Amino acid sequence: MPVRYWALIIVLGIGWGSSMFFNEILLRELGPLQTGFGRVGLGAAGCWLWLFAAGTRKPVNTVFLRDVAIFGVLQYAAPLVIFPAAQQFITSGEAGVVNATTPIMVVIFSHFWPGGEKATLVRSLGVLCGFAGIVVLALPALRAGAEGEFGGLLFCLLAPICYGIAVNWFRRLRGHDATEITAWSLLFGAMILLPVAGVFEGVPDIRHGETWAALLFIGFALTSAAFILLFWLLPRIGATRTSTITFITPVSAVLLGTVFLGERLLPEHLAGMAAIFAGLLLIDGTLLRRLGILRTA
Q1: What sign for the dihedral angle of Cα 245, 251, 253, 259?
Q2: Residue 295 lies in a domain
Q3: Is residue 38 within 8 Å of residue 26, measured between CB atoms?
Q4: Cα-atom radius of gyration of the chain, to the nearest Å?
Q5: How many domains does the chain have?
Q6: Is 195 exposed, middle or buried (CB count within 10 Å of its CB: 0-12, 13-18, 19+)?
Q7: Tens of pLDDT, residues 244-287
Q8: Three-class SS string for the chain?
Q9: Rounded to 5 degrees, what are φ and ψ at 30?
Q10: Cα–Cα distance between 260 and 263 in angstroms, integer?
Q11: Alpha-carbon distance 104 to 7, whole Å?
């Protein structure tokens, strides 16, 4: 694979890992609902600007709109509120590590989804490793009796669960342009979050330039531009290589939180991350096949 494609994978991984860091900045002036709406709304605006500029919009029907609205809730509206809400109780690094369990949730829901891919023994072991990693990650909170942090970790798991369901729901949208799906789903996500954020958190009052900078970057760069880039890259390098982004994202989140936010990096955090990575390796199976350990995965 060309070096430039690996460079794009690294950029996406670091970028999505940094979203937890930018959430911390936004939470200084915004509530979780306002943070989620800002990101989803600006992401939708960026995608629609791209579609209008490219002239690739196509007619849609009510079935598509219904399915893409549900996908928008599962893929964007819900998880992009869950993460900042959880980060009121856990660190950005912990949120990034929890986000890495997304492929594990995909395996679980795909196994039970009608027409979904059944989990093999090796992938089931990967799921167990992933959950073991979450348990290890939660040990410091349990040991310290920090109920808020422990509850925050459990609540944060709802985001990967949403992603696991969304990946399977996406089957209904096959045959449509990926960027168009992203634009519509972000639009519906923003439409749902706007009244909810208005009722529960009111009109945002942003007074610092760093908040505006973080909001614009997380919305346009890390949502609309990043997903447009992802869908451009995916058919060129395949799903397996694209999935390696999952390994970069939590490392980026942990390093940024440790270096710039002064978050403590405990041995349990490293051990939990290692267990989750082991689970991802088992689920993916590529490395095991190359080592001759597995013939199929």
Answers
A1: negative
A2: no
A3: yes
A4: 19
A5: 1
A6: exposed
A7: 788 888 889 999 999 999 998 888 888 988 998 888 888 877 66
A8: CCHHHHHHHHHHHHHHHHHHHHHHHHCCCCCHHHHHHHHHHHHHHHHHHHHHHHCCCCCCCHHHHHHHHHHHHHHHHCHHHHHHHHCCCCCHHHHHHHHCCHHHHHHHHHHHCCCCCCCCHHHHHHHHHHHHHHHHHHHHHHHHCCHHHHHHHHHHCHHHHHHHHHHHHHHHHCCCCHHHHHHHHHHHHHHHHHHHHHHHHCCCCCCCHHHHHHHHHHHHHHHHHHHHHHHHHHHHHHHHHHCCHHHHHHHHHHHHHHHHCCCCCCHHHHHHHHHHHHHHHHHHCHHHHHCCCCCCC
A9: -120, 155
A10: 8
A11: 25
CB 81 within 8 A of CB 33: yes
Tokens 């440790």 belong to 258
Contact between residue 187 and residue 44 where contact means Cβ atoms under 8 Å apart: yes
Asked if the structure places residue 14 within a domain, the reply is: yes
Q: HSE (CB half, 13 Å, CA atoms) of 164? A: 22
Domain range for 247: 3-290
At 279 the pLDDT is: 86
Q: Stretch 93-111: mean pLDDT, rounded?
A: 90
- Asked whether residue 296 is assigned to any structural domain, the reply reads no
| Interior angle at CA 69, CA 116 and CA 20, nearest 5 | 85
pTM of the predicted model as reported, rounded to 2 decimal places: 0.90
Terminus-to-terminus CA distance in the chain, angstroms?
22
Question: Tens digit of pLDDT for each residue in 167-201?
Answer: 899 989 988 888 899 999 999 999 999 999 999 99
Instruction: Evaluate whether residue 297 is within a structural domain.
Output: no
| Cβ–Cβ under 8 Å, residues 66 and 124 | no
CB 123 within 8 A of CB 107: yes
